[in-house]
Amino acid sequence: MPDSHPLKTAAPDPLNEETYRLLVDSVRDYAIIMVDPQGIISSWNEGARRIKGYTADEIIGKHLSIFYTPEDIQTGKAEKELEAAAREGRFEDEGWRVRKDGSRFWANVVITALYNQDGNLRGFAKVTRDMTERKAAEEALAQKAASEALSRRAQEILEISTPVVQVWEGIILAPVIGSLDSQRTQQLTEKILHGIVETRSTIALVDITGVPAVDTQTARHLIESISAVRLLGADVILTGIRPAIAQTLVHLGVDLAGVTTRSSLSAGLRAAMERLGMRVASTDPD
Question: Residue 3's pLDDT is what?
Fold first, then answer.
């Protein structure tokens, strides 16, 4: 009977050393090296040269700890990784490594223990990948998340530090603590306007006792808030005008004409209640 498969090919030869070498050198994104049981480098591929900067002639015969940071060398990190690979058969980790020029890169490292048929350790195969770009992206995302969390926290603190409360029917109070900038002024104005509308108040007490100092910018921000409140038909009584702040306002030429001012919150509240037609009487029998 004729052979139905007249064309036959010989089985491929086992992978010889030259073919293996070509295969390893063709991998340019991974550093693939061989080390003996003591950690001495015995082979070096093109990917290792591209990632770490050394040529084969420069690095073969050196201990693999040459790629580790000074702090990791002191703790014997390289030796511990080899011990773990020999014990478990495989070790994987990520961390900083050092190039020939001294720069650091974030590396993913896989170390595989190589044993012969008798179970004797012949050495290790170590594969390293440069993950610096991924590490930078992760850190950027983490920094962005931290920044956003900080902004949210700052906003929460801002809202807490600028409360607006109704102290009497028709009167709301906005105590200002700390310096006023554009953001805080906008927050203060929005909360006062919202408070006026929500409580149907006609007078807003703005107390600046907690403002450490008043400069041109702070005064301008106060006037902006007062003007916005007036557009709703409400009046503003500015309290907490200490002598030093009064002198500063005069020196700066800040025009507070038409704005009712009082030196203390209690005096401001009394003025507000009198404006609403209420009389504050003392309960002291004397």
Answer: 47
In a domain, 237, yes or no: yes
The count of C-alpha atoms lying within 13 angstroms of the C-alpha of 51, restricted to the half-sphere facing its C-beta, is 29
Q: Which two tokens stand for residue 44?
A: 């070096």
Q: How far apart are CA 175 and CA 161, in angstroms?
A: 8
Task: Judge contact between 32 and 47, C-beta under 8 A.
Answer: yes
Residue 26 scores a pLDDT above 60: no
pLDDT over 50 at 2, yes or no: no
CA Rg value for the chain? 38
Reading phi first (left if > 0) and then psi (alpha if -120 to 50, else beta), residue 77 is in: alpha
**Could you tell me where the beta strands, DSSP code E, fall in 38-80?**
41-44
Tokens of 200: 């149907």
One domain, residues 44 and 128? yes
3-state SS assignment for residue 179? coil
Total count of domains within the chain: 2
With cut-offs at 50, 70 and 90, classify the pLDDT of residue 148. Answer: confident
Give the span between the Cα atoms of 87 and 143, in whole angstroms: 38
Q: pTM for the whole thing?
A: 0.49
56, 44 contact by CB (below 8 A): yes
d(CA 91, CA 83): 9
| Residue 177, domain CATH | 3.30.750.24
Q: Which residue has the tokens 């591929």?
A: 45
Pair 164, 174: CB distance under 8 Å? yes
